[in-house]
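Subject: design request, 169 residues
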């Protein structure tokens, strides 16, 4: 029986990988079809900057003036705090949950594109979290020994989507 599991493992891994790629493709299509809100686009247009070794949205840089890096356990926590965008704050008064999710995914997609083109040799996680009260998107560089999220995403009450950028060669 153990032999069958081992023989089966590559096929099951390939099926999961193919399914995950299908989901990623569907999300890319959804994000491309959804036009990002102008106010959210303004957050991304200035690009990124590096402050104290942390990659930050230039538009969020003003947040770091009163924030000490020493208040965080690592650079990942610092980046997640500064690069934390509440999508609903940029969409006006009346927003339904579908539009909120679409805008969150579109913002995440544009963030991934920007990070990949600005930092082709670095890897990042872009995290979308959605619950009944809102949607937020944040990102951090992937570093050895540092994690912002638990490996068990089922622990969270909100829905979580994590997109990792691959290193481009």
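Subject: RE: design request

Done. Sequence follows.
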């Amino acid at each position: 029986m153990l032999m069958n599991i081992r023989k089966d493992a590559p096929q099951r891994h390939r099926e999961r990988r193919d399914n995950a790629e299908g989901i990623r493709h569907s999300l890319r299509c959804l994000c491309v079809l959804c036009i990002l809100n102008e106010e959210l686009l303004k957050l991304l247009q200035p690009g990124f900057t590096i402050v104290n070794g942390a990659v930050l949205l230039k538009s969020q840089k003003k947040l770091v003036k009163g924030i000490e890096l020493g208040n965080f356990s690592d650079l990942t926590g610092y980046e997640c705090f500064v690069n934390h965008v509440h999508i609903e704050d940029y969409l006006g008064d009346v927003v339904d949950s579908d539009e909120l999710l679409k805008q969150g995914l579109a913002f995440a997609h544009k963030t991934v594109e920007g990070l990949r083109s600005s930092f082709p040799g670095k890897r990042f996680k872009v995290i979308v979290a959605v619950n009944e009260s809102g949607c937020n998107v944040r990102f951090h560089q992937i570093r050895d020994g540092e994690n912002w999220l638990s490996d068990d995403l089922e622990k969270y009450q909100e829905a979580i989507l994590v997109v990792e950028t691959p290193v481009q060669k």
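The longest strand covers residues 124-131.
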